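re: the backbone from monday

yeah here it is again, tokenized this time
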């Protein structure tokens, strides 16, 4: 989307930087970082409220390991939602929309992000660690 701002370089001198892939890549990285800072706490609170936490095995099953990892009980396991979401939004804003490889990578990232989500839900449903 921001790529098309380079067309304004005829009227305004500084807009030609939107044509350069290096500028857009750095701007996309900064955008994803800022979005993760802005929405990180909100997403974590939602994931905690939805009880999307890591189940911990009972002490009888794993003995000493339960003592070491007991503090992880209830820790949200879906933090990748934040990362994938911010990268998708930043890429959508800053990449060239007519480049099919951008769309291929974005949808591959979404597909590979959904696969662990389904696995995590099945694991939580069966309560296996």
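seq for it, each position gets an aa:
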């Amino acid at each position: 989307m921001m790529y098309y701002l380079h067309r304004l370089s005829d009227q305004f001198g500084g807009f030609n930087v939107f044509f350069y892939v290096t500028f857009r890549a750095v701007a996309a990285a900064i955008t994803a970082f800022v979005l993760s800072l802005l929405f990180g706490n909100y997403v974590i609170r939602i994931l905690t409220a939805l009880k999307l936490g890591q189940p911990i095995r009972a002490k009888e099953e794993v003995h000493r390991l339960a003592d070491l990892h007991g503090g992880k009980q209830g820790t949200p396991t879906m933090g990748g939602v934040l990362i994938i979401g911010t990268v998708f939004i930043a890429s959508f804003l800053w990449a060239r929309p007519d480049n099919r490889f951008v769309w291929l990578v974005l949808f591959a990232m979404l597909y590979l992000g959904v696969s662990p989500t389904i696995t995590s839900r099945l694991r939580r449903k069966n309560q296996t660690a």
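DSSP finds five helices and no strands in the chain. The CA atoms of residues 100 and 106 lie 10 Å apart.
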